[in-house]
Design a protein that fits this description.
It is built from 13 helices and 3 strands. It has 295 residues and is mainly alpha-helical. Strand 1 and strand 2 form a beta hairpin. Pfam families: Phage_int_SAM_1 (PF02899), Phage_integrase (PF00589). This is Tyrosine recombinase XerC.
């Protein structure tokens, strides 16, 4: 088995992640061919790898992208070492670049309340579907891929929960609020009536034509409605995931509970939201404390 087959079939990475690995490896291979006249990436040594990393930085590539390519090579050479294609791992001395962590972009509570409570959605199936998309993303914090992958059978109306298939094929159970629960019930009734039973019965969310919802459709819906209430540059489904986590934390939710709801494997990934919470505290302090702005 070659490396690409390994990450596709054994590690079962998403298509997007698989293509990123493939492209990184091809770029590295092309660099070796031009600079060192090498045909196989496993022939590279530490100095060659370091030279490639330096060239990426000099070209102006951001640190996050460079670190992803380093991670690709790390996985590749570990695979080669395990299969005895190389005698030593040249990545042992290669360290990831220290990237400046950006705070997650989120929508403030007031505009989210305006969007979901005050704005009138069209009084038809499409309007109800769009409202459900926004409520699910904000009310559960699920990822875009998890949302479009939801099946009707993933909704337990008796327990008021949904089962989400997350990264690495791990399932997690997320509770539905009473508002979201009633919205799902209403949506399912309208879906059956609107399409007269001819829509995709497996997929929870469907397009105007009754086929399973797809990422571009969801992105379009989110951008359309967030534009009504916020001037944020980013208006994506992931912004609503960040908003879900930030609002929970700001209102005192336990960090471990948020971690489980988001489907994070480690607490470190969830802790980034504490920075937003601290910024909120600073903002409140600056606005309210009589000595906050004194010289």
């Amino acid at each position: 088995m070659n490396f690409l087959d390994y990450i596709r079939y054994e590690k079962r990475l998403s298509h997007h992640t698989f293509m990123a690995y493939k492209n990184d490896l091809e770029q590295f291979q092309e660099y070796l061919r031009v600079q060192y006249e090498l045909d196989k990436p496993e022939q590279a040594d530490y100095q060659m790898i370091r030279s490639w990393v330096v060239s990426l930085v000099e070209e102006g590539m951001n640190k996050t992208s460079v670190n992803r390519k380093i991670a690709t090579l790390r996985t590749f050479f570990e695979f080669m070492l395990r299969h005895k294609a190389i005698e030593a791992n040249p990545m042992l001395k290669i360290q990831a670049l220290k990237a400046n962590r950006k705070l997650p972009t989120f929508v403030e509570e007031k505009p989210m309340a305006t969007l979901l409570d005050d704005i009138d959605f069209p009084d038809d199936f499409v309007g109800l579907r769009d409202k459900l998309v926004l409520e699910l993303l904000y009310g559960t914090g699920i990822r875009l891929g998890e949302l479009v992958g939801l099946k009707t059978t993933d909704v337990n109306l008796y327990e008021k929960t949904i089962v989400v298939l997350g990264k690495r094929n791990k399932h997690r159970l997320i509770p539905l609020s009473q508002t979201l629960f009633k919205l799902v019930q209403d949506y399912l009734r309208h879906k059956e009536t609107f399409f007269e039973g001819k829509a995709d019965a497996t997929a929870l969310l469907v397009s105007d034509q009754g086929i399973a919802a797809y990422p571009v459709l969801i992105q379009r819906i989110v951008k359309k409605y967030l534009t009504l209430v916020t001037t944020l540059e980013k208006k994506s489904p992931h912004v609503l995931r960040h908003t879900f986590a930030t609002h929970l934390l700001n209102r005192g939710a336990d960090l471990n509970a948020i971690k489980d709801l988001l489907g994070h494997t480690s607490l470190a990934a969830t802790q980034v939201y504490t920075h937003n919470s601290i910024e909120q505290l600073k903002k409140t302090y600056d606005q309210a404390h009589p000595k906050a702005k004194s010289d």
